[in-house]
Amino acid sequence: MADVLLSGKGPFKEEVQQLVEESGVAESAEEILGPFSDIASSVAEALWDAVLPSSTTNSLHWPFLVLTVILTTGLWVIHKGRGAKGADGLERHYGLMEYLMPRSIYTHLSARVDIGLYLIDRGLMPVWIVLFLGGLAPFVEQNTIGAMQWVFGASPQLQPTTGWKLFYGAVSLLIADMIFYFIHLMMHRTKIGWAIHKVHHSAQVLTPITRFREHFIAAPIWGSGFAVGLAMSGGVFAYLFNGGITQITVLNLGIFSFIYALNGNFRHYHVAFRYPRWLEYWIQSPGMHHTHHSMLEKHWTTNLGLVTSIWDRIFGTLYISERNEHTPWGLTPEDQAEYTTLSQNLVTPLRDIYRILRGTPTGDPNYKL
Q: What are the backbone dihedrals phi and psi of residue 334, each rounded to the nearest 5 degrees, phi first?
């Protein structure tokens, strides 16, 4: 897939270059091409992989599913059949097959709604890729390069040594983690954000497909945040290295996507995969996300991080649960009644946003989970 991205044969190359030229940034950037601009030149070839589970960065790609089964089997052996939860969020003792795929979870209406929302999400993915990876990210990146040159002059042309590559990767990871945390916090602490994000929290059971359970208007929010943040970082490092960091960026994104794809399956899976307690104060374990999805008041608005627990610690949203703590998933009963079926999950957020904008009371805004 990296070869495709780097081939430079994409049909959107001319459109991206035209956008950059019309913005007046191309002249100031003095031929330095940032990684997202380079990637965007051939983005169309990657669209098919992005839509289907065959994508190597999709957590539903079969090697990730196989690895999830292997790790889950290991957990079943280590914990002697314990550690999995039922549809009620209570820990259960299961035989191996039920441990892997409990009928009460995979036949649940919520799991079926996940499939419908997943198909809508994947169907719209090409649109978001073109808008953000093919349009917004290159625009922000080239403007960042132009601004750096205007303020600091010509590129220092640093050599991308192993140390610099690792530093660039670490900075990109921390920026992505920070962006995720603050967008996630906004989703929970604002009326409109919560109206949209309720769809994700309306999942009454957790399966790997629940990761994609989002309202279709949530994708532009996440996509624009990551596009701007990571493109600014890419622009700064492209300026420092005088370009030539596309392969490093693809590698960084590939590693990040691989880790998140595997981690993502367990974040939304009925088996609690926990780290040692001391480590969870620094790194988000998948099991910590079980707590985040709980409807219990003590779990509301906790564990909002993606990779690290740093931001949760700083802003007081970290919650380290007890082993196999009860975490009933979903919304409170009064909210769940309006977010149960596929049609409700698609229509109710739009209705609530309309009421919020008009100033019409919608009941308790319920920014809780």
A: -65, -35
Question: Does the model's pTM come out above 0.85?
Answer: no
Helix (H) or strand (E) holding 314: helix 310-315
101-116 confidence digits (pLDDT tens): 999 999 999 999 999 9
CA distances from 32 to 25, 224, 282, 339 (A): 11, 23, 37, 48
Which of 77, 2, 81, 85 minimizes the C-alpha distance to 46? 2
Which helix (H) or strand (E) is 238 found in, with range? helix 218-241
For residue 85, the cross-strand partners are 91
Q: Which pair of structure tokens corresponds to residue 334?
A: 């009064």
Asked if 236 contacts 155 with a C-beta cutoff of 8 angstroms, the reply is: no
Give the bridge partners for 92, in sequence order: 84
- By C-alpha distance, which of 17, 21, 1, 12 is closest to 42? 12
Q: How far apart are CA 338 and CA 349, in angstroms?
A: 10
- The rounded distance, in Å, linking the Cα atoms of 177 and 114 is 25
* Residue corresponding to tokens 């140390």: 163
Over its C-alpha atoms, the chain yields an Rg (Å, rounded) of: 22
d(CA 102, CA 206): 11
- Amino acid identity, position 250: V
- Based on the number of CB atoms within 10 Å of its own CB, is 82 exposed (0-12), middle (13-18) or buried (19 or more)? middle
Contact 99, 76 (CB under 8 A): yes
Amino acid at 330: G
pLDDT digits (tens, 9 = 90+) for 295-305: 999 999 999 99
At a CB cut-off of 8 Å and minimum separation 6, what does 137 contact? Answer: 36, 37, 40, 227, 228, 230, 231, 234
Which has the closest alpha carbon to 204: 46, 362, 40, 86? 86
Give me the residue spans of the domains in the chain: 2-358
- DSSP annotation string for 43-69: GGGGHHHHHSTTSTTSTTSHHHHHHHH
